[in-house]
Design a protein that fits this description.
0% helix; seven-stranded mixed sheet; 40% strand; mainly beta
């Protein structure tokens, strides 16, 4: 992808493929879209990122190990947000459904917007159309007795 940095350049401000003990994979970034950084950010090792739309990573975002991001429209991760390991974020279903009578898409891609100071725990799946406010926490695969499924807390 085309890489754009909307901040004064500093040595080490963007770390891609940062080593971690939880993953031995290589970070792969591909596509023909725009990958925009607005300041310091870290993408740990083992991540798979495909950008065909606009992926906008704001100041101080951390993307943990083995995260997969598929951007065909627009994904915005606002400042100071964190994405836990093995999470998936995709703004498309990868299988367009077309109304042949109206000749239009029934399930088009939709933007994802993650608010400032969000924390997405491990193994969270963020799908198209997701918009979170600032200071939001999302967890998945709760293993507490009596509680199962997805949990989220937003103001």
């Amino acid at each position: 992808p085309q890489i754009i940095i909307n901040a004064p350049l500093e040595r080490g401000m963007i770390e891609i493929g940062k080593p971690a003990k939880k993953s031995f994979g290589k970070t792969k970034i591909s596509g023909s879209g725009k990958l925009i950084f607005a300041g310091h950010s870290i993408i740990w090792e083992g991540c798979h990122i495909e950008v065909y739309g606009k992926l906008d990573i704001r100041e101080n975002v951390l993307i943990s190990v083995d995260v997969s991001i598929f951007c065909f429209n627009e994904i915005v991760m606002k400042a100071n947000s964190r994405i836990g390991f093995d999470s998936v974020m995709m703004d498309s279903d990868f299988h367009p459904i077309i109304d042949i009578l109206g000749k239009s898409y029934i399930n088009p891609t939709q933007s994802i917007k993650i608010g400032d100071y969000n924390w997405l725990g491990a193994e969270v799946m963020v799908l198209k159309g997701t918009k979170t406010p600032a200071h939001c926490t999302m967890l998945s695969k709760i293993k507490t007795p009596g509680i199962t499924g997805l949990f989220g807390k937003c103001p």
